[in-house]
Amino acid sequence: MANVTFSAPTLDKDITVYAVAGDNKTLLGVARQHGIPIPCQCQDGECGSCLIKVTVLGDNAPMAIHLTDKEKLTLSVNGKLTKAQLDNTETNDMPPPYRLACQYIVRGEDILVEFSGEPGVEIDLRR
């Protein structure tokens, strides 16, 4: 089980839910299951509307979290994935901070998922 905490200016308060690790449910699926309104349009990793920032909580090192080819392209085109971050992800299994909720598969680690509530807008621009 993983604790997934969702945080956004559009939420009254942060919401923590439990997600079963390895059930192949995306973060978008977990959010929908719990009524958390992450913006999304294509749900296929091509539009970037479900942009999220993921922070691993706790002392354990982040698990290797595979980026799909669509996610790599969409994040890169939108300036959310640098070449250095991509290299670090592929070489050292260090996930980048920005992801797409429709592509991110929940693993067995506790995470903070931040989103702005606006399609494709990063949370850091709303602080």
Explain what the structure shows.
It is a single chain. The chain is an alpha+beta fold and 127 residues long. The chain is 20% helix and 19% strand. It contains three helices and five strands; from the N terminus they run ββαβααββ. Strand 1 and strand 2 (15-19) form a beta hairpin. The mean pLDDT is 89.
Continuous helix count: 3
Oligomer: single chain
Strand order of the largest sheet: 2-1-5-3-4
Radius of gyration from CA coordinates: 13 Å
Q: Give the SSE order as H and E letters.
A: EEHEHHEE
Q: In total, how many beta strands? A: 5
Kindly estimate the percentage of residues that lie in beta strands according to DSSP.
15-25%
Shape: globular
The N- and C-terminal alpha carbons lie at a distance of: 30 Å
Which structural category do the helix and sheet elements fall into? Answer: alpha+beta
Unreliable residue runs:
none
Mean pLDDT: 89
Helix content: 10-25%
The biggest beta sheet is recorded as: 5 strands, mixed
In short:
The protein has 127 residues and is of the alpha+beta class.
Chart the SSEs and their pairings.
Blueprint: E1 2-7, E2 15-19, H1 27-33, E3 51-56, H2 69-77, H3 83-92, E4 98-100, E5 111-114
Parallel strand pairs: 1-5
Antiparallel strand pairs: 1-2, 3-4, 3-5
